[in-house]
Amino acid sequence: MTYAWCQASGEGVRLTLRIAPNAKKSEVIGEFDTALKIRLHAPPVDGKANEALIRFIAERLDLPRSAVVLLHGMTSKQKVLAIHGTGLDAEAVGKRLLGV
User: Fold this and answer.
1) Beta carbons of 52 and 40 less than 8 angstroms apart
2) Nearest to 60 by CA among 7, 100, 1, 9
3) Can you give the pTM of this predicted structure?
4) Residue 24 belongs to a domain with what CATH number?
5) Is residue 1 in a domain?
6) Of 9, 37, 54, 83, which has the most beta carbons under 10 Å away?
7) What is the DSSP string of 24-68?
8) Which residues, other chains included, contact 86 with Cβ-Cβ below 8 Å and sequence gap of 6+?
9) Is the pLDDT of residue 1 over 80?
C-alpha cells in the first residue's frame, strides 16, 4: 500500500504533515488530501509544537528523536519531516503512523 504523504527518498522516508496545535491530546487524525493530519498537545510558540511533533513521531515509530528531522515548515501548519537511517521503508512508516 502506498500513501501520498509518505514517500521514500534518498535519506530514508519523507512525510508531508498537516498540524493542528493546541489540541487536548496528541494524535493522528488521518489522511487529509496529500498530507497526514496530526493534532498536537502543544502551543505553536517558541518551537514547542515542532519539538512536540518530532517527539510524537519518534515515539510512534519507536525511533530516537535524532532520526526525525524537520525539513520544511518551521512556522507553518504544513510540515515536511525526514526519517533518517532507520531501516524502515515508506509502507512500514505509513502503517505505524496510521495504526494499521
Assistant:
1) yes
2) 100
3) 0.91
4) 3.30.1200.10
5) no
6) 83
7) SS-EEEEEETTEEEEE-SS-SSTTHHHHHHHHHHHHHHT--GGGE
8) 12, 13, 61, 63, 67
9) no
Q: Residue 75: CB partners within 8 Å, gap ≥ 6?
A: none
Grid coordinates representing 98 are 496510521
Domain membership of residue 59 (yes or no) is: yes
Residue 36 pLDDT greater than 90, yes or no: yes
Residue type, 51: E
DSSP state of 3: B
What integer pLDDT is reported at residue 85 of this predicted model?
A: 77
| 40 vs 25: CA distance, rounded Å | 6
